[in-house]
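<context>
A single protein, sequence plus fold
<entry> Chain with its tokenised backbone below
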Amino acid sequence: MEKDESVFLLMTRIAPLSMMTIGGGLSIIGDLQRLSLEYGWFTAEGFNEIFALSRVAPGPATLVVTLIGWHVAGLAGAVAASLAIFLPSSLLTYGVARLWHSNRSAVWTKALAAGLAPIAAGLIISSTGVLLRDAAGQHLAWFVALVIAVLSWKTRSGPLSLLAAGGVLFLILRTILLESP
């Protein structure tokens, strides 16, 4: 596939996902992985690696899109993918924010906010399931994710400390299970 075709493909496949980032970029990770596998941009393991790399770097969860674009078509792909993921949702957000602020006390604003919250949560949980399905040590990864989710809910600890705790817990359990006879 030519570079121009790759750039066009990136833009046309990623731009619609921009409108699904309700609750943040993590809500579309499952779809990004599906696209990456469908078009042969990455293997499941390769996608998990690039996703992990994007999460280590500061910035939004959708930074992974820029890395996908770079991998597929170099600098032009990175720019095209970034514009495709950020521009449509940014324009929509701007328009909705103007409408929202001019109708702050309207009943529909409260109803819309209450209705979108479970959608955002569902999309994020779905994406987490896709990532855990392909994670190394799948069952152990699911167990650690569940433990950390419960700790998050019960303790209200910060996300960085929970992320660190989850990583340490996973490494300890994996070491113990791999060394068991």
